Amino acid sequence: MQWYHEDVAVLAAEECWALLGRAGIGRLAVVVDGAPEVFPVNYAVEGRTAVFRSAEGTKTAAALEAAPVALEADGYDEAAGRAWSVLLKGRAEPVPRGHALFRALELPLYPLQAGIKDRFVRIVPTAVTGRRFPVVEPGAWESWAAAGRRTATGSARWTEERPDRD
């Protein structure tokens, strides 16, 4: 784990894979007609790959195009007050019939939506990165409009008229 910008930690690859393995639900980013699209997916980690199960459709077709894909998962440890985010980048490929498909059928892949989900897709990574960071209380994000401008005494009050207001 490497630290940068105060309390934000860059996670080692092993920790990224461990977190990905526990999450099981993430967002798959693909390119559809030249534009990014994001789909929720459940997935399972197998070795150093991620496998998801889906039906034929936009998500599956786009994932299996030649364009790179990304899978992001995140979580929050309420007791520690810290969140994490892991991003897996790579290419997707169909899980071929045979032993690989039998192994994929044994993975804990339970699609979020009902229907026939007979396509298994594997994401082969080119990179895995992650961050862990503290979560601040909502009050830390006072807006200028709500709090006014801070004066030298630290009290919140308006110190000038806002030209964009009537």
From TrEMBL:
List the InterPro entries: Pyridox_Oxase-rel, Split_barrel_FMN-bd
Q: What is this protein called?
A: Pyridoxamine 5'-phosphate oxidase
Task: List the source organism.
Answer: Kocuria flava
